[in-house]
Design goal:
By secondary structure, this protein is an alpha+beta fold. It has helices at 5-10, 13-19, 29-35, 43-56, 59-67, 75-78, 84-92, 100-117, 135-145, 150-173, 178-190, 196-199, 211-227, 273-287, 314-320, 338-344, 351-355, 377-381, 419-437, 472-493, 512-524, 539-543, 571-592, and strands at 231-234, 240-244, 253-259, 295-301, 364-372, 385-391, 393-402, 406-407, 441-443, 447-448, 456-457, 460-469, 496-505, 508-509, 531-534, 549-554. The strands form three sheets. Strands 1, 2, 3, 4, 5, 6, 14, 15 and 16 form a nine-stranded mixed beta sheet that branches. Strands 7, 9, 10, 12 and 13 form a five-stranded antiparallel beta sheet that branches. A two-stranded antiparallel sheet has the order 8-11. Helix 11 packs across helix 14 and helix 21 (512-524) packs across helix 23. The protein is globular, with a radius of gyration of 26 Å. The model has no long low-confidence stretch (mean pLDDT 95).
Length: 593
Amino acid sequence: MTLNLQHLNSAPPADALNLLDGLYEHSPWIAEQALAQRPFASLAALKHAMVTVLAQASVDAQLALIRAHPELAGKAMVSQSLTAESTNEQTRAGLTNCTPEEFAHIQQLNAQYNAKFGFPFILAVRGPRGTGLAKREIIATFERRLGNPVDFERAECLRHIHRIAEIRLNDKFGFEPALGNAVWDWHENLARHSDPEFAERGELTVTYLTDAHRACAADLVMRMRECGFDEVTIDAVGNVVGRYHGSAADAPALLTGSHFDTVRNGGKYDGRLGIFVPMACVKQLHAAGRRLPFAIEVVGFAEEEGQRYKATFLGSGALTGHFNPAWLDQQDADGVTMRAAMQHAGLPATLEAIKALKRDPSRYLGFVEVHIEQGPVLNEMDLPLGVVTSINASVRYLCETIGMASHAGTTPMNRRRDAASAVAELALYAEQRATADGDSVATIGMLQVPGGSINVVPGRCRFSLDLRAPSNAQRDALERDILAQLRAICERRGIGLSLEETMRAAAAPSAPAWQVRWEQAVNALGVPLHRMPSGAGHDAMKLHEVMPQAMLFVRGLNSGISHNPLESTTSDDMELCVNAFSHLLDQLAIGQR
C-alpha cells in the first residue's frame, strides 16, 4: 500500500514507526524521534525533521549509524545478508555484477577507507536523479573521498545517508519528483554541447558564440517552444528570449533567467538552472491553459562568465543598456574579434541593434533569478533552498611587495627584507579580519615569488587580494583595515609595495518585497527558511541597476562545488525549486488582480 501524509500523521506511534521502517539502516530511532514532530505539512518537512534528529544526535550515535551500513560490494553483499533496501540499491548500481577486477579494486578501496576513517564508505548509489550511478562514477567517488579529512568525511557520509533515506521515503510514498526529473534531464541534454578541444576530453566548456554555444541556443529555442512560450527569439547579442503572454496584451512582465555559457571545464548547473526552472513553470501554465495577469519573460543570457572575451555580464548588460562598444573590437585567443564572431553567428553586430535591446523598467515588475548556491553552506546545513539577502559588494587588487633577495643561509633573520613573509603575515590578518565580520570574505588566491629559489630569501612577491561583503559600507571597512595593515606590515619590515585595483562592484541587496515573496514560497513548502548573502556575482547584479531583484539558491552537492565537473544537485531539490517559483508566480498573480 502506498503511504500518504494523512495516514502517517494520524497513525498511532507504533504503527507510524512501522510505516517508516527501513529508511535508516538498522536505526529506527531517527524516524521515531522525528515522528514526535507530527503532523507534517509536506514530505519535505518530514525529511527535514529526520535530518534535524540526526544533527542533534551525539557523534557516537552518528558513528553507530554509519557503521550500521554495509560496505559497497562487501562481505554482506557476498553473504547475501544485506537489508532488502540495500540489496535493491546495490543491485541497481550494478555492484552485484562486478568484473573480478572491479570487485578486487572495490575491496581494496574498502580496506583503505576503513583503515583511514574507521567506518564504512557511504554513497547514495542511486545518485542525484534517483536512477543510479554508473560503476565508474562510484569508484571515482570512492577514490576521491579517500583524500578527505576525517571530520569532513563523517559529515559527508551522513549527508549521503540522508539522501538514501530521501529516496527510500519517496519510494514508500510513491512520490516521483517529475518536474525535478525533467529539469535535471534538460541539463543533461544541454551538456552534450561543448567546445571541441574540451569535448574530446569529456569536459564541458561553452564560450560565447562558438559552435557549441550556438547549438545550446538552438536547443533552448526548441525547448522553450515545446514548453509553450508564445514568442521565442535570439536577440542581437545571442541571448535566447522566451515570452509567455499575460492575460492582457498590455500586461507588465516578470523578467527572469540566467546564463548558459560556462567556464572552462565547468559544471552543468551554474546559470542554466535559472533558465530551466522558470521554463518548467511556464510548461505547467501552458498545459493548464492558464494565463497570469502579467507576462513571463525568460532570458538565457548568452555571456556572463567572460571566458572568450573580457566582457563579463555581456548578456544581461545589454538589457540594462550597459554594453561597452569597445567590446566589439576585442579579440579572442585566436585573433577573432567579437564583431566577427557575432557576424559569423548571424547577428547584426551593430551598436544600433544592441542598444535596441535595452529594456524599459516601467514595463517590468522586477527580476528574479534561481541559481545553484556555488558554496558549501546549504549542503552542510542539509537545507535544499536559501533566500538571498544581497549579492556581495567586492573589490579586487593585484599587488606586489618588493623586498631584497639574499642568501637564505647567510642572511640573519633580523636582517631580512622578505617580500613573501610580509604577504604571509597579511594573509593571516585578512583571514582574522574577515572572520570577525561573520559574513565578509577575504582571499589571496594568487601568490607568486618571481624567479624564486629554495635557497634565496624572496625579493619580490606578487599576489591578488579579493574582498567581499554584503554591503558597500562593510566592504569598504574591510578594505580599509586590510590595506592599512598591509602598509603597516611593509613599513615595519622595510618592504616596498605596489597596488592596482582591478575591479570594484557595488552590493546588490534584494528588494525587500521580492525577498519576502521568496521567503513565503519556501515556507509554503514546509522546509526551514534560511537567509544568506551571495558571495558570487550573478546576472541579477546587472538587473539590480534598473529594477528590483531577488534570488533563490538551490543546494549543491559535493560541498557545493561549482565551476567544476563535480557541480551537482538532486532532482528532489530541483522539484522544490520549481514549486517555490510557482508559488512566487501565484503570489504575484494575486497581487496584480
